[in-house]
Amino acid sequence: MNSRPTAREQFLQSGYRLLGELDTTDLARSLSISDVVEGTGLSHQTFHNTYPGNSRSGGSGGKEAFVADLLDNLTVNYSGTVVPADPATGWRDVAAPASALFDDLTSGLMRRRLIAALFAGDHEGARKAVTAEFERLDNDFRTVVGQAIQAQGGSVRRPLSLTSLSTILTALLDGLAVRDMLAPGSVAESDVTEAATSILRWAIDPLHTDRSSPDPDEEDSLELADTLRPDLEGDVIAATEVLFLDHGYFQVTLADIAAAARIRVDDLRRLFPSKVDIIVAALKPEFDRIFRLRRADERLGIEPAIALQRTLIAVGDFVIANRAMSGGMLLALSFEQFQQPSTITTVMENLFLPSAVVPILERGRAAGVFSEEASVLEVAVMLTNNVLFRCLTRPTETSAQVAAGVLRVLMPGVATRSE
Hints:
Layout: H1 7-21, H2 25-29, H3 33-40, H4 44-50, H5 62-72, H6 91-122, H7 124-151, E1 155-156, H8 162-182, H9 189-203, E2 204-205, H10 216-220, H11 232-247, H12 254-261, H13 265-271, H14 275-300, H15 304-321, H16 323-335, H17 341-350, H18 358-366, H19 376-393, H20 399-414
Antiparallel strand pairs: 1-2
DNA-binding region: 253-272
Keywords: DNA-binding
Protein name: HTH tetR-type domain-containing protein
């Protein structure tokens, strides 16, 4: 017969239950403002000047305002995952980024991620504040995992994708970092390397053995209704974008796209004869928007230098909003021009980025604002190519930052005078 719990046990159980129900924002409210002020080296008066008012009297100033500001601007202080400059060769080199991220996690990043996750679960402002940093870490790590796959010349084994594989590895590292927090030194860096290496060895298929076309029986099972969907082309474009994100442009076949979009390969070829045709269909409407905005600037008489900056920002918005497709377009232009020259023609006719700024450069030269050291087309190519490359290689920069960086370097060679 079980004995009745003692008073102490009942108190402890009640405390455990309350801890589980605790709103973590109460933790932020328990901060000592004296400690916060002391940590800055500033004065209490400066604090109250920054957060005027008195929350004790029912106002919204003072400590209450500081806590609200703190939660709405919560940060993990994630500084970024270092992407290896040289391509990986051996398997240990492939797993090196996982070890580097584990070092960052155990050096304080894991504790900050846990704290941010707790606050994000209870406070909408905190959730919005830290989501971008969580996503940035995931995207950075997916990039290095993608490079590891490319270094081995393979693809991710199904049913995994690049996204799911990087998520699994990140979760493994998070778990190992938590274990090391509980028992410092219990997880050796060599163990992390071995674990990541083993997973990558299994997950990477160097021969692309499972990237083949669907079996005929599977295609035959697709019903006619699948080709009568309201926007079949849109479904194909959406499926292609996901596949490009997960596997990269070269590792995706039309058969892969057909399977993902639930359409027969023959029907897909009738809609889009090649991957490049899918890219053009996806990007053309957004590309046309750049021209519409530029024409509006022309009609309003916007100065050429300002119009150029505005159009380059629009180009940056175009690339950033369509990163997977834009990356595919760049790879198609770079590597398929010798095997499939028609690729170049298709892209040039529909998505020639330099054409967006050529009229602005011509207008600027006529007004004496831009120099004539190089041909208009050459300058346009340099400007738009640099925006394209920078948007694809610097995912944390905004389109405005990209345009400013490109113009800061190239504008002295474009302008005839200082702006």
